[in-house]
Design a protein that fits this description.
Largest sheet: 7 strands, mixed
Order of helices and strands: EEEEEEEEEEE
Shape: globular
Helix content: under 10%
Distance between the termini: 40 Å
Structural class: mainly beta
Strand content: over 45%
Length: 126
Amino acid sequence: QVQLVESGGGLVQAGGSLRLSCAASGRTFTRYTMGWFRQAPGKEREFVAAIRWVGGNTYYADSVKGRFTISRDYAKSTLYLQMNSLKPEDTAAYYCAASRKYYSDTYSSSDEYDFWGQGTQVTVSS
């Protein structure tokens, strides 16, 4: 089991920045691919970014590429999402997730993840 706790959400103006954190505890953090997803009211949960447990390859949704950066600190067992140039359409609840899947092309499907955090709200005002 892996326990995930997100933090860092809040209200920000368009063009601003936020950094989300996801603290992991439980089983070995290093053996999981980690991802960020988001869900806006009335919409399905969508993939944002992922970072592989081996090699550190990163994957991004087209909508955030060039603006968001995913990273992880193994010593702190923490996952991050640096979000720059935020837009109102980035408003959503953001969730971190952990995947035990050894290989995937992009880790972009929520079905590939085994553990989820409770989410943190990001609101971008125009």
